[in-house]
Amino acid sequence: MKLRHLLLILTCSSLLILPLPDNAESTSISDNLPLDVQVDLLMTELSRLLKIDDNEGIIRLIPQIRGLDIEIPDSLYFLEARALYRIGEALTARDRLVVYLANTGRNGRYYEQATELLLAVREEADIQERKLAELERLRRVELAKSVQKARTLRIREAQRSLQQLGFREAIENGEFNNPTREALAVYQIRHDLKVNGDITDETLEKLKAAVPESHNCDGLARYSRKPQEWGIPVNQIPAQVAVPACNEALRLYPEVIRFQIQYARSLLAAGRANDALTAIEKPARLGYPAAEYLIASMHEQGFLSADSKPDLVNALRWYRFAQAKDYPRALLKMGQLTESGKAGIKRSNANATKLYHQAATLGYPPAQVIMGDKYVSGRGGVSRDYALALQWYTRAAELNYPEAEFKLGGMYERGRGVQRNKTSAIAWYRRARNQGYPEAAAKLRRLGG
């Protein structure tokens, strides 16, 4: 090795370990040296790495040499390929060998070694290439899934708002179908937006601004908008505060259907049935089942009759409108009318149970409790089956429905459909009590919980 090379290496090595002043720039020592000196340093280091077979060091160093503004010897491609092959990077090694042979042909210094290495590396390189291709395919699949998921969430967000703005056919299912496109186009026309029937950023922002996530009106006069929800019964709505709260919600968001329905429910709770009917007219005309159900119940209770007598004919008509849309409350009500044989319906326990089961399967907790009761008693066209009763109670209790929590506590207390377990019984009674279920406190006192 030339003395000049050794001196340079020693000099640079010693410089690299010296601490830099606080105001020194963090630049590489070699960047401050003349180009020919940089080349000498790197080539000397390469010779050292080749002697000790430091393949990873060779792979790190050669790209640095290639990065200099000089003509690079073709032999570096072979040396790099050999180092890559030795550490298992067959595919990259193959590519470097191909470059080397293409540049040098049969006149290359390492021609024979390169051709032998190419034959040796080819099979493993093909395997690695197939693996990379498969990984890339999977990456593209995952990327497509991610894009589709984001698109689906965006569609659902738009549909959720459209549903609340009177476009009932734009069902929240994440599918960009014709009803959704048509609803978007109509909404864009009404609000002077670019009309293309697509979910543009401008349209989505407008939709979101038109439909608030929550309002005091929701907490005071909530109704079941999804099967897994249950609303506040009309007779439990605090009308004195709910009416002004929902009136304010409508003043701020006049197009939102849920506020129209909740305002009507508040008015009904205040004893203003005729005003409630006026308030509910638009959502009922648009076919919203919650509105149809409310009108049906008003007829059933005689609120809309001149003599205040129940009008079961009109009640049944409106209940059936909501039932046809698989509205769980209407299914449950039709089950009750069928079980009792009211409103001109032929009495049938079996048919009633089918209606209860339909509502329960949709995930409606009150119907799930009724199904649990049916299997406990063995009535309504089903045989007694505590295990099935336990399943229905559990499904409703997992949705935090207090009556189900209470009855599930009873199943554990008595050992029906499950091994008797006082601790579990107390836990379920406690959950029911914490939600205000009246009978749970007495059970807890008796069990010492």
Commentary on this structure:
The chain is an all-alpha fold. Among the domains are: 33-139, Serine Threonine Protein Phosphatase 5, Tetratricopeptide repeat; 143-208, no CATH class. The chain contains 21 helices and no strands. Helix 4 packs antiparallel against helix 5 and helix 6 runs parallel beside helix 8 (201-210). The longest helix has 54 residues, at 111-164. It starts with a helix and ends with a helix.
Name of the top-level CATH class of the domain at 33-139: Mainly Alpha
Structural class comes to mainly alpha
What CATH calls the topology of the domain at 33-139 is: Serine Threonine Protein Phosphatase 5, Tetratricopeptide repeat
Q: DSSP helix count?
A: 21
Helix content: 55-70%
Mean pLDDT over the residues: 90
* Major sheet description: none
Give the termini distance in whole angstroms.
89 Å
What radius of gyration results from the CA coordinates? 38 Å
Unreliably modeled segments = 1-27
Number of strands: 0
| Overall body shape | elongated
Strand percentage = under 5%
CATH architecture of the domain at 33-139: Alpha Horseshoe
List SSEs in N-to-C order: HHHHHHHHHHHHHHHHHHHHH
For the structure shown, list the relevant keywords.
449 residues, 0% strand, single chain, 21 helices, 67% helix, Serine Threonine Protein Phosphatase 5, Tetratricopeptide repeat
